[in-house]
Write a structure and sequence with these properties.
alpha/beta, 5 helices
Length: about 110
């Protein structure tokens, strides 16, 4: 199930949605596009990596309010690029970090929520 924001969001609404998504989901991926149609290669890669170990996780399409999402996410992660993955409310990283975790054999454990 993908969380689809409306396109007329202001900065406060986006900040509230980011907060809610992080707090209410075990694993959430903020990405460009959605699970059915990722809009960038990095988002597609993150989806693929997470999907290897999780049957269900939340995704948030940041494109309807990209600048607001970048700003709101930066408050939680101090990370400027999209996609961004959060597990149990903690920032994990983008697709590059997920790939590094996979190479080290740590991604499955990272995505496993207790």
């Amino acid at each position: 199930m993908a969380f689809q924001p409306e396109s007329d969001l202001d900065a406060d609404e986006v900040a509230a949605r980011v907060e809610e998504a992080i707090e209410n989901n075990e694993v959430v991926l903020f990405m460009k596009g959605n699970q059915l149609m990722p809009q960038c290669g990095y988002s597609a890669r993150a989806l693929e990596l997470i999907g290897q170990y999780r049957d269900s996780f939340e995704t948030v399409d940041v494109l309807p309010a990209l600048d607001h999402y970048r700003s709101a996410l930066n408050e939680h992660s101090d990370w400027e690029t999209i996609p961004q993955t959060f597990v149990d409310g903690e920032f994990v990283g983008g697709s590059d970090i997920l790939a590094e975790l996979e190479e080290r054999g740590e991604l499955e454990t990272t995505l496993a929520v207790e």
